[in-house]
Design goal:
Keywords: TPR repeat. By secondary structure, the protein is mainly α. The chain contains 7 helices and no strands. The protein is elongated and about 50 Å long.
């Protein structure tokens, strides 16, 4: 795969994720993941596709890889928090989203944090 075709495949996968066609995106992204597994942008896109296709453990691993490669990536922490939330791991989700909101004080991040906090308040056992 040439550099040009790798970029083209990445862009196509981005478009498919935006269209909420994550399984198709993962199919297109497969060769890119093999060539560039240590590119945060590639792992982030794969993580989003995994998340949108309810492959939560794979999404979690992809987002953790992004954070390993770039600890300052606030968006990776936000979507990792969402992934953990979807798995019912609210305490871990709260930690990641709180970090993301601290790193990037955006109202949307605060809203996600508030949602997780509300779930924890309704069921304190969920934060264990």
């Amino acid at each position: 795969m040439t550099t040009e075709s790798t970029v083209e495949a990445f862009r196509k996968a981005e478009s498919l994720v935006a269209q909420r066609r994550p399984l198709e995106a993962l199919h297109v992204l497969g060769p890119v993941l093999e060539i560039a597994p240590d590119k945060p942008s590639v792992q982030l896109l794969a993580g989003r596709a995994y998340l949108f296709s309810a492959q939560f453990q794979r999404a979690e691993l992809a987002f953790l890889r992004v954070i390993e490669l770039d600890p300052s990536d606030h968006y990776a922490r936000l979507v990792l928090g969402r992934t953990l939330q979807r798995q019912g791991r609210l305490s871990e989700a709260q930690t990641q989203v709180r970090l993301a909101a601290t790193m990037y004080p955006d109202p949307a991040y605060q809203e996600v944090l508030g949602e997780i906090n509300a779930h924890i308040a309704l069921d304190p056992r969920s934060s264990e």
